[in-house]
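Predict the holo structure. Ligand: S-adenosylmethionine.
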Amino acid sequence: MESKGEDDLGEVVEPSSSSIAEKMGTATSIRSSPTPIAGTPIEADVANSGLPSPNDDMSMEVPSDVFKFEKENGRTYHGFRPGTYHFPNDPTETDRLDFQFEILKYCFSNRNYFAPLKNPERILDIGTGTGQWAIEIADEFPSAEVQATDLSPIQPSSVPVNVQFFIDDAAEEDWAVPPAYFDFIHSRVLVGCFENFGVIVQRAFHYLKPGGHMESQEMMSKPHCDDGTMLSNWPFLEWSRYIDDAAEQTGRPLRIANKLRGWYEAAGFVDVQEKMLKIPMNPWPKDRHLKNLGRMQEQNIVSGLGGLSMAYFSRVLGWSKNEIEVYLVDVRRSISDRDVHAYHKVFVVWGRKPFDHEVKGKQAEPPSSEFTFQAPGPSTQPTATM
Ligand SMILES: C[S@@+](CC[C@H](N)C(=O)[O-])C[C@H]1O[C@@H](n2cnc3c(N)ncnc32)[C@H](O)[C@@H]1O
């Protein structure tokens, strides 16, 4: 048993107020205060009636738990809805998330999405992390309003004017916008975040305008191999079984990528497309693009291994920090073995919410003046494997 020190479980870290201000910047705000039950009158703040004056206090009350990061085994974790997400939110992990964004962009041949978008007006990114996707999509569609949510305030403050970050839990039923609000809802690498990602897909369907699109981009945690060079005792494969098992025990599975298509269809999406791509574990492939991709992924996994492992192995499997670090030495080394031709499968799935007249038994509604619907073009992306 390790002695209790600053790295032990459960310590709460409150960033200094200046770092809070830096993190909040102007772009991230909180929208997770409890939603009033329908029919409950909301009491007006009489001290704040009439038109705003320049002397009004415009500061926002930030629930302190958002910034009370939990420190555990030398890493920090989200303080809002603590314990629900098992990967850290410290600079080591946020740097890795930014790098992973570049890897996926390279893997997708510089695309940020595959859905056939046509001038979307309102876009949502669920579990945005450091917000790189939301920022790039806001630049690509400067007239769109881009919202992005996360449990952690880890987004930059200097962002395009049309992007807004919110601290919010996507597992909540109420996403604090009216139904049929968004033209495009995006999610990426949300493994281990939710008890049932199928329910999140259903909720996204509810908040999409008819004709709007949803797209999810997810990686399988288990590596694959097509030529028999990955033996069943390869340390990284064993490691992936451990974290898969730990995630199952928490009730928030990692294995969601290959189930996306079924969830989309069950939710009612049409024109559902699935694309499967491969990211090599290291630069073992001959092909130049895949070699580069493998080089990037090797660096991503090697540098992220500690953060990806720590909470699952300690909180769920009951290992000490020391045991975990000793175990990871071999796992880390195995990632770089060029003789093992392993790769991760990445699934990209997108679909369209049908118009009322396309849904059997549903009456077409007269066009609303509030929302302008954009008819999507034909889905031309084939289902492809590499
Ligand atoms: C692996 S990161 C991916 C971030 C981003 N989508 C990307 O591709 O870089 C997963 C993110 O989901 C967030 N998250 C986890 N559970 C969530 C929830 N219930 N609601 C909103 N965000 C959540 C985490 O805080 C984390 O930033």
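Residues 119 and 141 are 7 Å apart (CA to CA). DSSP finds eight helices and twelve strands in the chain.
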